[in-house]
């Protein structure tokens, strides 16, 4: 029976890159995230072309009960759960004194608490089989701060802390837990920031994107979602069996400075 993976927030961007790479590596995949019925059907069909089983569950990651239901739906669909990728995330940019409390709560629940709820529900299934991979999509913002991103930076630092504890608690259970810390990746989440900056500065989106990346990264180019997917597949491999509790940096040199 092939191994099964659940990737939260995988209808676009990095999550889709990871789900595609896992399907390509032979994992059955449970997709999750928003999209129209037609968009989701197209994704399921595209990933199924790898000869694996693919399904989608619409759980809203801000609701703990739906997160637990998503994990159980994955086990029902595939009979097992071997890989959990906590990827769903949102962003909100505002100075702390102006940051809406409701946006703080939403960022913390989707970017941090959902990973706790999914991990809690997934661990017994992995422990039963003595094998598991938990991959938390953190960020450079789990390692350093940036102005305007108090909730996101707090959530991503917290996610790295959660990763370390889960790694320690399962160090001899055949289960690894690692964080991936990307710099700028070309996705809808970043595109919204680029569009806002272009509007604000009266500049083209191409110029806004170049400035955004250049402000932080010595390497002035975006990471591809497929590259993050390849890194996740490596973390699931036997070669990565002793990599646990780590921060896998893929950031164009951002945090080397
Ligand atoms: P994206 O906006 O392209 O995709 C986000 C995905 O999450 C979508 O599938 C969306 O439907 C889903 N989602 C959002 N809210 C949800 C909810 N409440 N319930 C279920 N699904 C939900 O974003 P992305 O850039 O691919 O970001 C994915 C992850 O990578 C996030 O955790 C983000 O913080 C992280 N990240 C992104 C970058 C970057 O530069 N893009 C860099 C570092 C880390």
From TrEMBL:
<dbReference type="InterPro" id="IPR050259">
    <property type="entry name" value="SDR"/>
</dbReference>
<dbReference type="InterPro" id="IPR011294">
    <property type="entry name" value="3-OHbutyrate_DH"/>
</dbReference>
<dbReference type="InterPro" id="IPR002347">
    <property type="entry name" value="SDR_fam"/>
</dbReference>
<dbReference type="InterPro" id="IPR036291">
    <property type="entry name" value="NAD(P)-bd_dom_sf"/>
</dbReference>
<dbReference type="Pfam" id="PF13561">
    <property type="entry name" value="adh_short_C2"/>
</dbReference>
<dbReference type="InterPro" id="IPR020904">
    <property type="entry name" value="Sc_DH/Rdtase_CS"/>
</dbReference>
<dbReference type="GO" id="GO:0004316">
    <property type="term" value="F:3-oxoacyl-[acyl-carrier-protein] reductase (NADPH) activity"/>
</dbReference>
<keyword id="KW-0521">NADP</keyword>
<dbReference type="GO" id="GO:0003858">
    <property type="term" value="F:3-hydroxybutyrate dehydrogenase activity"/>
</dbReference>
<dbReference type="GO" id="GO:0032787">
    <property type="term" value="P:monocarboxylic acid metabolic process"/>
</dbReference>
<comment type="similarity">
    <text>Belongs to the short-chain dehydrogenases/reductases (SDR) family.</text>
</comment>
<protein>
    <recommendedName>
        <fullName>3-oxoacyl-[acyl-carrier-protein] reductase</fullName>
        <ecNumber>1.1.1.100</ecNumber>
    </recommendedName>
</protein>
